[in-house]
Design goal:
By secondary structure, the protein is α/β, with parallel strands linked by helices. The chain has three helices and seven strands, in the order αββαββββαβ.
């Protein structure tokens, strides 16, 4: 029997109650949200349950939503894959202005670099990460360049317009 999204939703809702929400199909991928306090356990549950088998972490990324309310400034998005049934799911969690989240490197070793990248570019701190440090930017860098509070290019350029990339121009210094 094929793994159905209704079955996944029922199992998660039964196990985690109101800590999992907003289930939907989005661009042909079953998507839902989990609270930051339970995201680690939700992902562990998806991995270890024999009737779910989401054993592969395809991707983990951060997103900055500067126009959202204070509790939803950042998101961490996890893409998981069940190879046996060839089903992918997307799990999101939203974080406040100073984003912190428990690492999942104990569940997926490949999360090590993905979490380091989210730290490097968005400043999302993964609690318990074995070596959370810059991975692509210089160690001396004090800002997080993918946050939309920083302009994409220097202010002297006329061929790029930050508004086209979802960024608003502000008077904040770019460090």
């Amino acid at each position: 029997m094929a793994l159905e999204t209704v079955f996944i939703q029922e199992k998660l809702s039964h196990q985690f109650g109101n800590n999992v929400l907003n289930f939907e199909m989005k661009r042909d991928i079953f998507t839902f949200e989990a609270t930051p306090a339970t995201i680690h356990e939700v992902i562990r549950f998806l991995k270890v349950q024999e009737d779910l088998n989401f054993h592969f972490l395809t991707d983990l990324t951060g997103i900055h939503f500067p126009d959202n309310d204070d509790e939803h400034q950042f998101a961490v998005v996890y893409q998981l894959h069940n190879w046996m049934e060839n089903i992918r799911i997307r799990v999101k969690t939203y974080l406040p202005e100073n984003p912190e989240l428990k690492t999942i490197t104990d569940l997926f070793q490949c999360a090590n670099w993905m979490e380091r990248e989210a730290w490097d570019f968005f400043g999302i701190h993964f609690i318990g990460h074995p070596q959370l440090k810059r991975i692509l930017n210089m160690d001396e860098m004090v800002s997080f360049p993918m946050r939309k509070e920083f302009p994409m290019e220097d202010s002297g350029r006329t061929d790029k317009d930050d508004r086209f990339f979802g960024r608003t121009v502000s008077n904040k210094s770019t460090l």
